[in-house]
Design a protein that fits this description.
heterodimer, A: 182 residues, alpha/beta, 3-stranded parallel β-sheet, two-stranded antiparallel sheet, globular, B: 222 residues, 5-stranded parallel β-sheet, 44% helix
Chain lengths: 182, 222
Amino acid sequence: MGGERELALAGAAAKGLLAAAGWTVEDAVLRDLDIAGCHGCFGCWVRTPGECVIDDPGRDIARMAAGSDLAIWLTPVTFGGYSSHLKRAVDRMIPNLLPFFTTVEGVTRHTLRYDKAQRLMAVGLLREPDEAAERLFRALVEHNAANFHSPGRGAALVRAGADESEVAAVVRDGLSAAGVAL
Amino acid sequence: MSEPRSALLITGSPRGHKSTSQSLGSYVMDRLAERGWLTDTAVLAAKVGADGGLDDVADAARAANLVILAQPLYVDSLPAIVVRTLEHLAERKVGSGQALVAIVNCGFPEAEHNGLALEMCELFAREAGFHWAGGVALGMGEAISARALRDAGGMVHNVVRALDLTAAALDQGDDVPDEARALIRKPFLPAMVYLWMGNSGWKRQAGENGVANRLYARPYAD
């Protein structure tokens, strides 16, 4: 989570909707975790396959991701992408992929390490209206979903100042887009 | 006599100096130096997390006439250390109309993967007050493998030509030319050859590390 009120509301809304639908939800507040950046060493593929060589909470996040059916990412929209807090965690998820190449949606990607892939829903907080940033955020979620072979994906944009009901509606739409039955 | 212009290379690869990003960026810097530019390099792997490191990068970017941001693609976008740096620079509005250029490389054969990362750099330029002078992006970055472009052989001739055109244009005060953007996107190996080499390489490296039989390990399986 990025810490803003609207993202906290989005997290609470997602938890509430999922709990009501019978889901079990685990969460992590990334700004409170000391996660090192990916070194780009590919040790998670060729030295300690499936696990990052860095022993820190980044491993826990990758483990949570691998074991889940749905990943929900909450972040301020930052240059059309994710904040550095979220990006550090996402970069550390590549141990959940294999190094080998395959084709997904017409372009080269890495193959999945596990049989199960996660649905992906990302909530982005837009501090001010910005069409370019919004379009880019949605495109990034699409690309990430292809990267992680997600069977369903949704991007939800929350505007700064949105109230609780507005945030809840956006989150519901995002979860529905990701194929989550509520 | 006018003062020499200055260019700052920000190397965004977590691998630091020994990276393809550094190879690509330093090639352009060398061409600018030949034209009389003063050049400087900030390697983010050494700056992010170091006391005052990001402030050093901000000061250097503020002082430069041209900033070149060279990085690999990480999970469809900019590496986290680059995002952290751009957040820092944008918060301080270090741009005052100086030019910003991005160079992005990815390990997939298709250069198109880099498109979102280039757009993010453009949005950063807008937020931080730089003039977006354009970007170049290439696939098959692992084939360069951090070698100096002069040592990478004939396969990178389009990359070299594109960066030569880029440096010449920047020296003239122009943006990255379309011809450079198109040239550098051209695959420098047949995709099938590159993919075969890549897949073989992973197995070879795992074998060298004694984990060939664990390549498909699932440590987080239930």
